[in-house]
Amino acid sequence: MKILISADMEGATGVTWPADVLPGTPQWERCRTLFTSDVQAAALGFFDGGADRVLVNEAHWTMRNLLLERLDDRVEMLTGRHKSLSMVEGVQHGDVDGIAFVGYHAGAGMEGVL
Length: 114
Ligand SMILES: [Zn+2]
Description:
This protein is α/β, with parallel strands linked by helices and about 110 residues long. The protein has one domain (about 1-100): Dipeptide transport protein (Rossmann fold, 3-Layer(aba) Sandwich). About 20% of the residues lie in helices and about 20% in strands. The protein has one helix and four strands. The relative contact order is 0.27. The mean pLDDT is about 95. The structure holds zinc ion.
């Protein structure tokens, strides 16, 4: 079973205001750790639940936010903005059995997360 995790940052643990997701800010550095922990927890849960492959598509801003060295060695990564399907890159190959949207959020100005 192959799972795709599309990981956005605005809905990650601890994110509460715009600077938390703005690359280069001290708040972003802090929240990268929390964001990475959320993705790691999801990946480990899928492996424990029977997935033999977990592909993480990093989907926030420059798509280079996760701390790769803190993720499980079995995790496969799509990092950077070179993706034709952007936040759901990886789904088009027909080998994904399920998709998880981690750290997603409501639209700007809408009721909900962020
Ligand atoms: Zn984002």
